[in-house]
Amino acid sequence: MAEGSPSPELDVHLLECPICLERLRQPKSLPCRHCFCQECLGTYITKELSGKMASATSFPCPVCRRMTQTVNQTEAKDKWAEQFPTNAVIQDLIKLKEHSSEPLYCKPCQTRGNLTNLAKFWCKIMNLNLCETCKVHYHDVLHNECDILDITGYDSRKTKQEKIVPKCDQHDEKLIWYCEDHKRLGCNICMIKDHRRCDEVTTVMEYLQKLKAGSQLEEMELALKKGVQAMTSLVKDFDEQIQTMVQNQEIALQSIKDLRQRVKEQLNKLQKDVTDKLITLFKEEKGNMEASSRQCERLMNSMVNTMKSSVTAAEENDTLEAIVLYQRGQAEVESCKVLVKKMNKSFTSVRINHHIVPRLVTLGDEAMGKIVIERQRRCFPGDLEYLSVPLSERRVKEIGKFNVKTPSDNNDCAIRGVVYLPNEQIVLSDNRNNKLKLFTDKGQYLDELTIQGHPWDLCLVNNSTVAVAVYTPDGVRVVKVEDSKLSLSSEINMPNVKHCIGITHTDGRFVVGTGSGELYSVTQDGATELLHRYKNVCYYLKQDSVTGDTLISIYNNTTGDVTVSRLSADKRHTDVMKVGVVSGASGIDMDREGNIYVCGSESHNVVQMSGDGTHVRELLTSSDEMKYPWAIAVRDDTFVATSCDPWKSKYADNNCIRIFQLF
Is 555:522 a contact under the CB 8 Å cutoff? Predict the structure, then answer.
């Protein structure tokens, strides 16, 4: 057949849309070469991606399922089909097919009166049939760059009327025999070569008559009819199921939208609640500070007036007025001391923070986080020191002592760490029973938490969180203290560090001391950095909130060796105290004035000293029945001390803690 001449097979394989099974309209080609009507392809893409993520950028070919990328992803999905190239060859064949439904006569010849001169060429640009003469003398003179299709010998009417006789695909001979043994059609050569010994070999005509006589064709027709009915039922059922799924999808999509709206409304409410709480707490704290400031300001103005009037009265020798002003001045100074002492007990910096609940999985009451007020003890300004009671004049008295052994303990206690919380609760680390314990400072047992490893020193992370250093396995355990309950918040493992004992917290990281004298900085994910190496055990650590330095108690008992050291942020270390009054330093803490408290486990005393170590005095000694003090925690004018005899597991005070007050 000449180039460009369509055949019946072309109608099926090239000119028919695989989706609608009709003649292609605006044929669009995908990269895999399959061709579809533009409208059919657009509808298919929209349905295929319906309900999927809006970010989808590809779809499977309806025929071969190969994933196809769209040309312009920013366009709406119902416009994607327009972006693919139009198949020009298919369009030409369709035009030719439509054109060839009429007799293919030369059009110029017809205009000249010759109505039956057959055309041999077709110009697709001019949509014109041409004979060879008109092509050369008429068309090629004016349109020599057009695409011309040779349609010689093509006659759609003849093609449709002629019957194509099937031939053997091996020998190109007519199929005139049928072998019933092998159920195969064959030509003469097939029968001679392959079916000479078969019992049932007949001509195709004889076999057809046999099928008709035995009603086999009717039975086959009936079976096909039933099969068509079955397939029709299945297609109908699938259509109904798809329709149901589409409806379900629409309902589900609407449900998702409704849920999103409800979630949005709930989040708006939660945001309003937490915002209102933040504003309320801020106003309350601001009001308290402003009230304290006004109280100080009123007393200040009164004292300024008294001072000026007193000077004037003295200069003018107004005896009576001078005496009255003197008495008023004395009263105001006493009032000032009382006010300073009162404020000193609660002199803190206030931070209002927004805490977000980690790993949020439900939209509960804390989905938008919670507002937490953190108070940090701080020192009075230096010019108020003269109003405070001198360090050497403050006395100590014991105000409480209680047993901390619980019924679930398998051994006597060894209280190695203690934290005195702002809410008057005390957290203890029991090294022998591998527990943290929670008590009130009146001795009421609240809760306990078993810890993996042997717990030692404790530190305060914030008002409701503590951390404990543990060894075997070595690391840090972070514990929440909320609603009088202890709960493990996180574990920081340190496999490359041996014998973690001391701990403190600063700027979102931990500082950990070891049994061999190393001091490490530890991040939340367990990364470590060596800060310094001392010559002996770093039992206990404390962060100086004013200077940012780390205080370290070092277990030395040789006179002249350092026992309390101060390590600055730039890794410079300063000796604060050497072995003398204190031997075998263990627990260490600071008060809000910057005074340091140290337990001497071998010297059997608790000492108090200034931040630079120049002024030292013993608060408790063995005469106060203070034996083997290990841990200490200070809160305002009160402190907790624990005892632990390292050589006697049955030492009576191992199971007790004592509370003291400075006055």
Answer: no
